[in-house]
Specification:
This protein is 31% helix and 24% strand. Strands 1, 2, 3, 4, 5, 6 and 17 form a seven-stranded mixed beta sheet that branches. A five-stranded parallel beta sheet has the order 8-15-9-10-11, with helices on one face. The protein has three domains: 2-148 and 271-332, FAD/NAD(P)-binding domain (3-Layer(bba) Sandwich), CATH 3.50.50.60; 161-268, FAD/NAD(P)-binding domain, CATH 3.50.50.60; 352-457, Enolase-like, domain 1, CATH 3.30.390.30. By secondary structure, the chain is α/β, with parallel strands linked by helices. Helix 1 (13-24) runs parallel beside helix 9 (318-332), helix 3 (47-60) packs across helix 5 and helix 3 (47-60) runs parallel beside helix 6. Strand 21 (393-399) and strand 22 form a beta hairpin.
């Protein structure tokens, strides 16, 4: 039996960062990955593939140039699924190579196989050649991520009815698509396929879209989805999805309405990938969705066993998962971190993209905080006109009593990049005056910070 200081189950963002951090602290580290190549869902089925798909669609469809040449403009007239997959394969191969090099350079042992606990310190690993090995460790991190939930009664076949992993293997782009579930994943895929001029219907039982976001940003986003012809049916519960017949799938809603499409994508949330880990042998229990409970240092109920990343639930972001893994590794081996998980940015890579950091208006109202807001439209900036932008809005929130920044909310081109300016100011307690007095490059979209700040300034009491 081989012994390590630290064994990590899963090689996604949390596992990678934890492994490298522990190695830099001089510990012997092994990463066990059940797939044949490292990277986890982030690289192979989730973050990297969906964002690569988005960029390929925006380029081939000529989306970013339509402000110049009109809605009929295309870089490629007939876009096929193979066009998108080709770019996807290139990106994934590169990501895997980079990750393998990082682990090798830091002398992290990578072990392909499926692990399960024998007891709180020992693991059995079934290798792909059918052989098994046993490993032990002083500390263990569970970073196995999640898989798409597949509700019973839905005829998933990977041909006409897909989950969010299966959709990446689509062989032919449909003319019509129904997306069931308007969470982050559903909204991203619905808007991406809509950018290909596919007729998309988005269905969700909830009355509002992305309720954790600022309502003004969501309203702006919805306006652009409807403007390009997307059908959005909120407050509509799916009663049944019939097996495909005649090349079309029938989605029946609880209201009695029916929607027919060539393809259906069901995004019913994610399930923690813990069912095969033998958690009971380690003294750990998962919740009904396979997720693990942790404390502020990402320890489970067994102190030397940690968990990080999507397997512990919200916010389930690659960015926060990385820092959770790093923090867990530091805590496990007595190193300190100054990481705060209270002011992280949230990015939604839809078309257009959205990003937020800090409080929403609803949160400020619930907390009884007096505030004022300011907004700026991208199309009203010189840079926005140069880029031919039709959409884009940046909104800032400031406290009334001391003018400190409370939140940044953005929808539009480059939102996930622009938000980091606001994140830095927010983290350092910056105020309205910073943006009013700051000099931004001209012409840039970053100027919208100053415009929005001046808009808020004009509303502040004299």
């Amino acid at each position: 039996m081989e012994h390590f200081d630290f064994i990590i189950l899963g090689s996604g963002p949390a596992g990678q960062r934890a492994a490298i951090q522990a190695a830099k602290l001089g510990r012997t580290v092994a990463v066990i990955e059940k797939n044949t190549v490292i990277g986890g869902a982030c690289v192979h089925t989730a973050t990297i593939p969906s964002k690569t798909l988005r960029e390929a669609v925006l380029y081939l469809s000529g989306w970013r140039q339509r402000g110049f040449y009109g809605r009929s403009y295309r870089v490629k007239e007939r876009i096929s699924a193979s066009d998108l997959v080709q770019r996807l394969d290139i990106t994934v191969r590169h990501e895997v190579e980079v990750l393998q090099h990082k682990l090798y350079r830091n002398m992290v042992r990578s072990i392909p196989g499926e692990a399960r606990f024998l007891d709180p310190h020992r693991l059995a690993v079934l290798m792909y050649d059918g052989n098994g090995i046993e490993l032990s460790a002083d500390k263990i991190l569970v970073a196995t991520g999640t898989t798409p939930a597949q509700p019973p009664g839905i005829p998933f076949d990977g041909t006409h009815v897909f989950d969010s992993d299966q959709i990446l293997g689509i062989k032919q782009l449909p003319r019509t698509l129904v997306v069931v579930g308007a969470g982050v994943i559903g909204v991203e895929y619905a808007s991406i396929f809509s950018a290909l001029d596919i007729e998309v219907t988005l269905v969700d039982s909830r009355p509002a879209l992305l309720e954790f976001l600022d309502r003004e940003i969501v309203d702006e986003f919805l306006h652009h989805l409807r403007d390009r012809g997307m059908n959005i049916r909120l407050g509509e519960k799916v009663h049944s999805i019939a097996p495909p017949e005649g090349g079309r799938v029938k989605v029946r809603l609880a209201s009695g309405r029916e929607v027919r499409a060539e393809t259906v994508l069901v995004t019913a949330g994610r399930q923690g990938a813990t069912a095969t880990l033998g958690l009971e042998h380690a003294g750990i229990a998962a919740d009904e969705r396979g997720r693990l409970r942790v404390d502020e240092h990402f320890r489970t109920e067994v102190p030397h066993i940690y968990a990080a990343g999507d397997v512990i639930g919200f916010p389930s972001l690659a960015s926060t998962s990385m820092e959770q893994g790093r923090h867990a590794a530091c805590h496990a081996f007595g190193a300190t971190t100054a990481q705060s998980f209270s002011a992280y940015p949230f990015g939604i890579y839809a078309v257009p993209e959205m990003s937020v950091v800090g409080m929403t208006e609803a949160e400020a109202q619930a907390a009884g905080i007096g505030y004022e807001t300011g907004t700026a439209n991208f199309r009203e900036t010189s840079r926005g006109q140069i880029l031919g932008l039709r959409e884009g809005l940046l909104k800032l929130m400031f406290r009334l009593d001391d003018r400190r920044l409370l939140g940044v909310h953005i929808v539009g081109e480059g939102a996930t990049e622009l938000v980091h300016i606001g994140q830095a100011v927010l983290a350092h307690g910056g105020t309205l005056d910073y943006f009013v007095d700051a000099v931004f490059n001209y012409p840039t979209l970053a100027e919208t910070y100053k415009i929005a700040a001046l808009d808020a300034y004009n509303r502040f009491p004299a």
